[in-house]
Amino acid sequence: MNVDFQTVVNSVGDLPPMPAVAVKVIEQLQDSTTSAAGLADTVAHDPALSARVLKIANSSFYSMKRQVKTLESAIVLLGERTLRSLVLAASLKGMNKSFGLLEKMLWEDSIGCAIGAKVLARRFDTVDSEEAFLGGLFRHIGKVVLNYSRPETFQDLMQAVYNGEGSIQELERRYFPYSHALVGAAVLKKWNFSDSLIECTLHHADLNIDEREEPSLYRLTATVHLAGAICTKLGIGQRSPDENLELATQPSAQALGLDIGELADTLDAIRIVFNENRSYFLG
Question: How many angstroms separate the CA atoms of 39 and 32, rounded?
């Protein structure tokens, strides 16, 4: 389907705003003259955001050898690209008009997939780990947007999924003119994210990318797809774990060349890492 992204954005109407501090940080990171102190000053303008960034920076996920006490030292130790990931992860929670059970599940799903994708990228050197984190973080941003713009309709859709009427991919076009994948890609385009993140979001469920023409994008999307499947199997961001899901049969596992033993070890690793760090990201 060849649809203009602007048409998709217009169909959504009420978009969640990208937090002003996140926008400013992204702009600063594109400026070679930006200092760690300048970045820290920007993040500090949002006390809740800065507290979350510091909390995440001190999680075992980032393996700091000593406690990070200031934003500036966090930026110096973690690096600017990791700061970008942390700011976006900490900002995503604010893209909701309310924060009930459904929003909590969407938030957990996004963070779980981001963590899972980064673990996969680190363990198997599939792609850049920070790009994998953002790919996982934004994989279901379209769901967040649809829930923000038409919460009652989105809740009806999710209830139909929970009732066993079909998968979200099968049912969502009954309720919305465009899929969550297309909406997510269109919104990332509007927010000026990279083409690789836009395409990864668009194809996170179908892996419809030419491996020969775009091998790096294919590996990124496969990494995010597999991380999402692992979250589903573990019950991260779900009502309950899908213990019958066979990871080895997933096209992404086959694309990355992972065998049953590697998948079992990785499943355990992601379960441990997520459980150890969920309070830092989700608290």
Answer: 12
Contacting residues for 13 by C-beta, under 8 A, at least 6 apart: 149
Residue 76 lies in a domain: yes
Residue 143 and residue 155 in contact, taking contact as beta carbons nearer than 8 Å: no
Q: Using one digit for the tens of pLDDT, what is the confidence trace for 187-207? A: 999 888 899 999 999 999 999
Q: Could you tell me if 62 and 199 lie in one domain?
A: no
The contacts of residue 236 (CB under 8 Å, 6+ apart) are: 108, 109, 112, 113, 116, 230, 274
- For the whole model, what pTM was predicted? 0.91
pLDDT in tens, 111-156: 999 999 999 999 999 999 999 999 999 999 999 999 999 999 999 9
Number of structural domains the chain divides into = 2
Number of H helices, E strands in the chain: 16, 0
Q: What is the DSSP letter of 206?
A: T
Note down the domain range covering 241. 97-283
Residue pair 43/28 in contact (Cβ under 8 Å)? The answer is no
